[in-house]
Amino acid sequence: MATKRPAPPNLQEIALQAGKVFATTPVSEEALFAGRMGEIRRVVDAINQRGRHALIYGERGVGKTSLANIIATRLRNPSREVVAPRINCESADTFSSLWKKVFSEVDLIKKRRQGIGYQLTVFEETIKASEVVPDNVTPDHVRRLLTLLGDEKLVVVVFDEFDRITNVDVRRAMADTIKALSDHAVDATIVIVGVGDSVDDLIAEHRSIERALDQVQMPRMTRDEIYDLLRRGAARLGVNITQQAQLRISLLAQGLPPFAHLLALNSVRTALDDGTTEVLVPHVHSAIKKAVASSARSLLSDLQTATTSPRKGKHLYAEVLLACALAKTDPFGCFYAADVREPLSKIMKKPYAIPSFAKHLNDFCQPEKGPVLFKHGVKHKFRYRFIDPHLQPLVIMKGIVDKLFTEENLDDMERAAMKAAPAL
Prior knowledge:
- By secondary structure, the protein is of the alpha/beta class.
- Helix content is 45%, strand content 16%.
- The protein has 17 helices and 13 strands.
- Strands 1, 2, 3, 6, 7 and 8 form a 6-stranded parallel beta sheet that branches. Strands 11-13-12 form a 3-stranded antiparallel beta sheet.
- A hairpin with a 6-residue loop joins strand 12 and strand 13.
- Helix 1 packs antiparallel against helix 10 and helix 8 packs across helix 9.
């Protein structure tokens, strides 16, 4: 009897599914969540200790919201129901509106008795916790209700995009709440998530709460974490992203999950258009132009503002910004002027010293150029980083599209990356 051959994969269906698997929005499904084990453990450890709370902070686009989405799936309690509302903060939110949102997602059991003498019947009714708090919610109202809920539920409240709250009174009230919950050892946890460099950026003038907060700084993803992300998505789709293609995507994404997803999505679809489920480096290269075209218009506008000049002649803004994007950085995207020298020399095919591009770096930090870079530190030791980290991989890909940066340059980067830190 002839062996029945498996049906060929439906390439159109895979292409459609790829948009779900490699979505550029935050991950909510644990099977697609990659890496970040150290950060997950630190947040879960805070949740498991009475009086401890957590602050997750870092650059935009490094996966803070995805981590917050996954936290609830890692919580297990045999004796209590796990309740983990995640609230997206808005600039207009007040302290009361934030907690009204939280308590509207928490159920309470209301009991009432009816009857005469010994013939009493107990009725149970489920209501929302928001129905039992006043219109003007205070930190003490929150403390008392969370104390009550803690007897029967494991409550973890996540406030995402907390940096959007600019009202100092709201931030101070949240800090007062964290302090009160910590001082009274209430068995409930607040997790603050937002863009910032420290606790001072996200919680106003309440240094005493630092003792109650586990501060979890989210770095960019490592190359191996990007590999894990790509392999999980490829396995889900039934395609194969070759190791060399994975390396190319990780280099271009610069540790930012949204760009790893964007490049993977376009690379997979390019391969499928070629009639294959094997994603190769040429498919990644073809995907770059599509990824640039589908980038946010605001980013493309920022790029144009930064790299154009009314001055006649060669001004090198595009080349220097590309060199900044290619510069060696720490896990949080920071680099020194000296780190720009080597990539700029490769782009220009001749040696460049720091004084020849120092003005460009300073200009990129000025309003006339966006600004697109932020600098901190002292003179001669300034550190720089992209204000919007999403601009960094876009600058690299646009440089390739505009032929400022070649395939050979990328090959050199890959060899240097592998030599510096071989993949696990």
